[in-house]
Amino acid sequence: MGFHLPKNFLVTGEPMIVVAEVLSVLTLAGIVFALTYYKKWKWLWDEWLTTVDHKKIGIMYIISSLLMLFRGGIDGLLMRTQLALPNLHVLDAEHYNQIFTAHGTIMIFFMAMPFIFGLMNVAVPLQIGARDVAYPYLNALSFWLFFFGCMLFNISFMIGGAPDAGWTNYTPLAGSDLAPGPGINYYLLSLQISGIGSLMTGINFLVTILKMRAPGMTLMRMPMFTWSVLITSIIIIFAFPVLTVALALLTIDRLFGSHFFTVSGGGEPMMWANLFWIWGHPEVYIVVLPAFGIFSEVISTFARKRLFGYSAMVYSMVVISAVSFLTWVHHFFTMGAGPAVNSFFSVSTMAIAIPTGVKVFNWLFTLYKGRIEFTTPMLWAVGFIPTFLIGGLTGVMLAVAPADYQYHNSYFLISHFHYALVGGAVFGCLAGLYYWWPKMFGFKLDERQGKWAFWLFNIGFNLCFFPQYFVGLMGMTRRMYTYPEGLGWTPYNLISTVGAYMMGVGFIIMVYNILYSIRHGERDLTGDIWNGRTLEWSISSPAPHYNFARIPEVDDLDAWWHMKKRKRKQPWELRPLKPIHMPNNSGRPFIMSAWFFVAGFGLVFEWHWMGIIGLLGVLYCMLKRSFEYDDHHYIQVDEIERTESAAGRA
Ligand code: HEM
Ligand SMILES: [Cu+2]
User: Fold this and answer.
1) Of all protein residues, whose CA lies closest to atom 2 belonging to ligand 1?
2) Ion ligand 2: protein residues whose beta carbon lies under 5 Å
3) Ligand 1 pocket by Cβ (under 6 Å)
4) What mean pLDDT do residues 479-507 have?
5) Which of 364, 382, 365 shows the shortest CA–CA distance to 373?
6) Ligand 1, residues 184, 414, 415: which to mutate, most atoms within 8 A of Cβ?
7) Where in the numbering of this chain does the Cytochrome oxidase subunit I profile domain appear (predicted)?
8) pLDDT tens column, 20-69
9) Cβ atoms 427, 383 nearer than 8 A
């Protein structure tokens, strides 16, 4: 209890951190100034901070994740700079630890997941012919919980000190004996706050997809991206509660002196590793299955063919999701669970390669004899296939339990999971970004710059991570902050660092492409700029806030493709317009999440009074919400008519 300011509350020791602090304050001041100068505060509040529109929430997720890709990427470049040559001292051991922890945590929780959630938000309701998600208010709450959780994590390196026990945060290293101070508390509380949001997103999209599909869209007529999101939602619902519990137990250990994870108190440190990976392995599929869904959409769109083996694609995702819950021990074969346990997890891990292989062949067969058009989204999708294949095959190698005693925690592993996470999830996000960009904003990103970005990023990526397989087999272990000369590792590391910087250049071109295309990008006047197959391309770009003036009726897979082929209008297209029921905006998701932030920040420093105040704020918001009855409105027919004819669709 009480108010006890830790010694180094504002972190000042390291020049690099001081520079970051100054830059952060300047950026914040710049934003506040710009909003005030251009009188945009009300616009910000009315249009964005209080919105419950899935499309805007999606855009906010994507902007946040791009910022976090930048932040996490800088961390990656810092590490690669440090490792470029032997005996460098750009970073010391302590900061290296903090940086790989921040990098891993941010990339997984605050970049890959929100990026996927953003694309889900943008595309799924449109793909199924719905006007929003099932619970729009909850959706806004999910976003703001993610956002404030992310903010809490991001201030740690400036205020109080960053966590440094790796993104896996293993005990006893992360226990209060070996890691006193606020660092690990930041990890626990920020992930807890954003994790609640993720769980609610899973529930929201499960219900949305099951209950809100347009008439005639049976499960087996859903677009493949929607399928992947349905399965992902189920994984989220089963996996995230495990993380919630693990984080809560370790928080109680650290803040209140219990002993769930300390041996001396009768606890079990390996329990953390188990709980973490019971969530953590399915987590990999939470970010990669939607990417698979995106690749399926993109490949069939630009091969101008129906997706090959649609039902096999669906069933293999179902199998992957189920088996993903039975493989977690492969992350610690070296724990010593014995041959029987290791054999089981070895076989279950290898089994995942089968449905994954089915999917790869289906993508290849979709491409086969297609009239392929190499647009930017298609480049990312085609580039993904060999990359993910390398990631997957080295995964099977890691699954050989006895051999893993050699590979474990080496650069071989680092390379493997970057091939899977970057080559799978990030390539997927970028494919989706270029693909759905016109739908989000009404103009296309420049194709030539997009291709430059793709090639630089792709070649840079392979230069960066391919050599790491070899240096890993030569004995270089992960999380090593420097290494001596004479081990033969230097050329590999140098190439790797050059590749990392190439990726950085690719990223900068991507950002430039966005800024350039805002002014010069090709406008999307038809709403169907790629000649698409699914319902999101049937409405104007950007989509009107009610999405569909008339809810479409679906009678086949690739519904929009068939509608385009038909000459005559369908009966549903000729029906008179009706007023549309829409949810009201609300500032409460934002405010409630801000209270969560207050509680989290208090608990990080063990100021329990502040934790209690924050939680009371949350409770108050919940009570207010429970007594809110006037939470929707109707859009009248004349407004719909005006909007539709302004978009050229009278
Ligand atoms: C942008 C290019 C990237 C570069 C240059 C990069 C580089 C690195 C480096 C140097 C490490 C530390 C290795 C060590 O010392 O153990 C690392 C670890 C890691 N990276 Fe990346 N990375 C990149 C992208 C990503 C992405 C996109 C993700 C996830 C989606 C990711 C997830 C991770 C994770 C989970 C770790 C492990 C952290 C830990 O050991 O606790 N990285 N990365
Ligand atoms: Cu795993």
Assistant:
1) 73
2) 281
3) 73, 76, 79-80, 100-101, 103-104, 107-108, 112, 166-168, 414, 418, 421-422, 425-426, 464, 478-479, 500, 503
4) 97
5) 382
6) 414
7) 39-555
8) 899 999 999 999 999 999 999 999 999 999 999 999 999 999 999 999 99
9) yes
Give the three-state DSSP class for 245. Answer: helix
Q: How many CB atoms lie within 10 A of CB 90?
A: 16
Calculate how far, in angstroms, residue 332's C-alpha sits from the geometric centre of ligand 2: 10
383's tokens: 């580039």
Between CA 230 and CA 240, with CA 235 as vertex, the angle to 5 degrees is: 130
Distance separating alpha carbons of residues 165 and 152, to the nearest angstrom: 17
- Distance CA(342)–CA(347), nearest Å, equals 9
Q: Give pLDDT tens digits for 381-416.
A: 999 999 999 999 999 999 999 999 999 999 999 999
Helix, strand or coil, per DSSP, at residue 546: coil
Query: Which run of H or E residues covers position 130?
Result: none
Q: Let me know the angle formed at the C-alpha of 127 by 126 and 133, rounded to the nearest 5 degrees.
A: 50
* Orientation of helix 339-351 relative to helix 376-398, angle to 10°: 160
Task: Identify residue 578 by its one-letter amino acid code.
Answer: K
For 568, which DSSP code?
A: S
pLDDT at 1 over 60: no
Q: By the 8 A CB rule, do 144 and 56 touch?
A: no
Spacing of C-alpha 107 from chain mean position: 8
Name residues whose C-beta falls within 8 Å of residue 504's C-beta, 6 or more positions apart in sequence.
Answer: 73, 77, 460
Name the one residue in this structure whose structure tokens are 């509350």: 9
Give the CA distances from residue 175 to residues 95, 244, 522, in Å, rounded to whole numbers and listed in that order.
19, 17, 54
86 alpha carbon to ligand 2 midpoint, in Å? Answer: 31
Q: Which band of pLDDT confidence, cut at 50, 70 and 90, is reported for residue 537?
A: very high
Res. 571 pLDDT band, cuts 50 70 90: confident
CA dist 465 and 487 (Å) reads 19
